[in-house]
Amino acid sequence: MNFPIIAPSVLSADFAHLGRDIEMINASEADWFHVDVMDGVFVPNISFGFPVIKSLQKLAKKPLDVHLMIVQPERYIKDFKAVGADILSVHYEACTHLHRTLGAIKEEGMKAGVAINPHTPVHLLKDIIKDIDLVCMMSVNPGFGGQKFIEQTYTKCADLKAMILASGSNCLIEIDGGVNDVTAPKLLQAGADVLVAGNYVFASSTPLETISSLKKLGSDTSQHA
Ligand code: DX5
Ligand code: ZN
User: Fold this and answer.
1) pTM of the full predicted structure?
2) How far apart are CA 150 and CA 152, in angstroms?
3) Catalytic site residues?
4) Model confidence over 74-95: pLDDT tens digits?
5) How far is the CA of 162 from the centre of ligand 2 (A)?
C-alpha cells in the first residue's frame, strides 16, 4: 500500500449522480471509499443506510471504509458486512463494551476501526490500541461535511502516532474532517496514514487532480515514503 491512503467521503457526492461520482473515484488515484452513516441520535444529522451502501458496493472497485456515527453500533455489524463494508469504524463514545465490539467486527472478516470525537483524548485508547486496525480521528465535530478543521488535531495525531509506535501496534491513523492542501501536509508530518476528504474533493472542478495532489504528498512528507 502506498501512503497516504486517500479516502474520498461519499457524503459530499451528488446523490442525484451517485453512479457518476463513484466511477470518478474508481478512475482516480483514491484508495478507499469513505462511507459516513449517521443516525440522527449520535450526531445531529441523518445520512443514508443499507440500500444506498449496497448500491454503492455494486459499482465500487475499491474497499468501503464505513464510519458509523450511530448509537449501539454493535447491533448492526452483520448488516454492514452484508452490504459490503471492508473496514467498519465505531465511535469510542458510542461503545460501552468496545473490546467486545471490535472482536465482533473482526469475527465477520472486517478490519476494526475506532473513531474518536475531537474532545476524546488519545490516551483513552492505550489499553486497546493493539486490537484496533484503524483510528478515525475526527478533526471536526462529526455530523456534517465542509466544516472548519480543528487545529489541536496535529498534536493529537502526533501523540497517537507515538502511542502506536511504543505499543508495536499496526494501527493506521485516519484523519476525518477539513482535510485540504493546507492541512494534509501537516497531518502527514504528524503521522497520519489515511486522509478522508469530502468537500475538498467534491467541490473541486477537477476532482481527479485534487485526489492526485493529495496522493502525491506521500512522496514529499509522509513518514512512510
Ligand atoms: C463528518 C464526516 C466526514 C465528512 C468529511 O461527520 O465523518 O467524513 O464527510 O467531510 P469534509 O472533508 O468536507 O470535512
Ligand atoms: Zn467520516
Assistant:
1) 0.98
2) 6
3) 36, 176
4) 999 999 999 999 999 999 999 9
5) 23
